[in-house]
Design a protein that fits this description.
Layout lengths: L2 E7 L3 H11 L7 E8 L2 E8 L2 H8 L8 E7 L14 E2 L5 E9 L2 H10 L12 H10 L5 H9 L4 E9 L2 E9 L4 E4 L3 E5 L11 E4 L4 E5 L4 E5 L4 E2 L5 E2 L15 H7 L1 H8 L4 H13 L3 E5 L1 H18 L4 E4 L15 E6 L5 H12 L3 E6 L5 H5 L2 E4 L12 H17 L3 H18 L2 H14 L4 E6 L2 H17 L2 E6 L16 E5 L5 H12 L4 E6 L8 E4 L7 H4 L1 H14 L18
Parallel strand pairs: 16-17, 16-18, 18-19, 19-20, 21-22, 21-23, 23-24, 24-25
Antiparallel strand pairs: 1-4, 1-10, 2-3, 2-4, 5-6, 6-7, 7-8, 8-12, 9-10, 9-11, 11-15, 12-13, 13-14
This protein binds fructose -6-phosphate.
Fructose -6-phosphate binds next to helix 9 and helix 15.
Length: 590
């Protein structure tokens, strides 16, 4: 995944793009580049590194002009090198392009273009785009006309911004990758995500696949690329503001977003009752329900399977979206797929949803990003309303997903109001758990664990899902190897790795404490260091994180101290917290 942003208007483009790139850094951060247009000249600066580093080295702010496009890269095709960084140009440097997505047929196109005499400078799939437009312009075509013909040749996914030295316009188009317009009183924006321009405007236009937009300093026009006719897109006003996309009093977005869970659970359960009731009818009617997601969203689905079973006595299948093709043949028009995704842009989730739709199954999704592909491709969607999640790790959206899925389970059990009350009331517990005092206490625990090579996490039932999520949080931000097991499983092999002092997080709930504590004893007797996450202290715990017993809501409250632990470990180990290595916020590639 990468982040793109373009600006055209009456202000200098480079400072606006630079700020935008910083806000989009969560989407990719191995290289960065900006191209601007001034007096029929295209200027390009790009290099390997993060926005701040590259900007200090190359001085992006020097770039002249009120029109520009820019890019944060998360490498897919070609290594992390200056040449592979975007923007990419045609042979003459007159046409310039930034891209998020994957051009699947780039090899054929590149071979064809090379035969026509085009010289390529990078190993990227993207570079075919400016050369294709250049090739079309040889036939006396104007820039926009040539771009239209060239873009139709592309297979795969893209959000693209294009500029040409002799025309003061930006062409913006998307297919399968996110792109949204911003409309301000001094110009127009096109970007992968709203935080890129939220400082300047709350007015946005969500684009659909095959929208082809021409942006000038004074207006924008949208066409359908395939049918080549104008389409109307309405201007929406978003409900959150620039403050929510800033760190505020916190040093990192991760901690800010963990603390926001005091509010986000309440926001998640603030849903239109009629829509919930309609979804419940679909759930009851369906012959076979699949909950699908990736990463943390998959863990939320897994937690929900226990919650549905416990609260509503209802069985759901939980499948990793990337494994869904193995189950597709079970789908019929009576099947219901519930797709869970923060970004609404995860490739594997979208592919699974498309496969389900092809077989006539109904798709309901749970999403945080309005206007994302998943909101368009589902029959119905529920918004998490968690506000922008900027840190690459999901924290607040993980618990929002569980809150929403729990609300559905309560509604299914005809206990909607009671359930909503319980979920709403969690703010009180979360407030305590995220307080400075608890954060400091967890920091003391992090001090003890910071030099460990391995951490194990165990839980039974619902707590197994929490253990998986806990391990993922620790791994991805602190780079300590963490592995999760269902309580009864560790002894079937992995217990061989337990040595003196090996830490093990043990998630305890009232309904399985006997069994899980006996698993903890097995680990302790091999020298393991036991960290209990529970409502009551126990003599076998070497450290104890107190979390009030909350029944099925344990899935929400027990993960919060571990999100903080992962954060503190990363701080102590000097990791790049909001941008862990090799990761990207949404994974738009297979
Ligand atoms: C982990 C994390 C990822 C995402 C996964 C799915 O902290 O953020 O594992 O949960 O990439 O992303 P979405 O929810 O956007 O589909």
């Amino acid at each position: 995944m990468c982040g793109i942003i373009g600006y055209i208007g009456n202000k200098k483009a480079a400072p606006i793009l630079l700020k935008g790139l910083k806000h989009l850094e969560y989407r990719g951060y191995d290289s960065v580049g900006i191209a601007t247009l001034s007096k029929k000249h295209i200027f390009v600066k790009k290099d390997v590194g993060k926005v701040g580093e590259v900007s200090s080295k190359l001085n992006f702010l020097d770039l002249k002009g009120n029109t520009g496009i820019s890019h944060n890269r998360w490498a897919t095709h070609g290594g992390v090198t200056q040449k592979n960084a975007h923007p990419h140009t045609d042979c003459s440097g007159s046409i310039v392009v930034v891209h998020n997505g994957i051009i699947e047929n780039y090899r054929e196109l590149k071979e064809w273009l090379i035969k026509k005499g085009h010289k390529f400078k990078s190993e990227t799939d993207t570079e075919v785009v400016p050369h294709l437009v250049e090739e079309e312009m040889k036939n006396e075509k104007k820039f926009a006309e040539a771009a239209k013909i060239a873009l139709k040749k592309l297979e795969g996914s893209y959000a693209l911004l294009l500029m040409y030295k002799d025309d003061n316009i930006i062409i913006a188009t998307r297919k399968g990758s996110p792109l949204v317009l911003g409309v301000s009183d001094h110009g127009y924006f096109a970007a992968s995500d709203i935080p890129a321009f939220i400082e300047y405007t709350k007015k946005v236009v969500y684009l659909s696949d095959y929208d082809f937009v021409t942006l000038t300093p004074n207006n924008f026009k949208v066409f359908n690329l395939l049918e080549w006719k104008p389409v109307r897109r309405k201007i929406d006003t978003i409900s959150w503001d620039a403050e929510q996309a800033k760190k505020g009093e916190f040093e990192h977005f991760m901690m800010k977003e963990i603390a926001e869970q005091v509010d986000t659970i309440q926001k998640a359960v603030q849903q239109d009752r009629k829509i919930i009731d309609d979804i419940v009818k679909e759930i009851k009617k369906a012959k076979g329900i699949f909950l699908i997601g990736c990463g943390s969203s998959y863990h939320a689905c897994l937690a929900a399977s226990y919650i549905f079973s416990k609260i509503a006595k209802f069985h759901v299948n939980v499948i990793l979206a990337s494994e869904f093709p193995n189950y597709e043949h079970f789908l019929t028009n009576d099947t219901l797929v519930i797709a869970v995704s923060q970004s609404g842009e995860t490739y594997d989730v979208l592919e699974a949803v498309r496969a389900a739709k092809k077989r006539g199954s109904k798709v309901i999704s749970i999403v945080n990003v309005m206007g994302s592909s998943l909101t368009r491709e589902s029959d119905t969607f529920l918004m998490m309303h968690a506000g922008p999640e900027i840190c690459v790790l999901s924290t607040k959206t993980y618990t929002s997903q569980i809150a929403l899925l729990s609300l559905l389970a309560y509604a299914l059990a005809e206990n909607y109001e009671e359930g909503k009350k319980k979920l709403n009331y969690l703010w009180n517990i979360i407030y305590q758990l995220t307080s400075r005092t608890i954060r400091e206490k967890i920091k003391e625990l992090a001090e003890k664990l910071k030099d460990k090579e391995h951490v194990f996490c165990i839980g039974r039932g619902l707590q197994y899902a929490t253990a998986l999520e806990a391990a993922l949080k620790i791994k991805e931000v602190s780079y300590i190897h963490a592995e999760a097991f269902a309580g009864g499983e560790l002894k079937h092999g992995t217990i061989a790795l337990i040595e003196n002092g090996t830490p093990c997080l043990v998630f305890v709930s009232e309904d399985n404490k006997k069994e899980i504590l006996s698993n903890a004893i097995e680990i302790k007797s091999r020298g393991g260091y036991i960290i209990g996450i529970s409502s009551k202290e126990n003599e076998i715990f070497d450290s104890w994180v107190k979390v009030p017993e909350s029944n099925t809501e344990n899935a929400i409250v027990q993960i919060i101290p571990i999100q903080i632990l992962a954060y503190q470990l990363a701080v102590l180990r000097g990791c790049d917290i909001d941008h862990p290595r090799n990761l990207a916020k949404s994974v738009t590639v297979p």
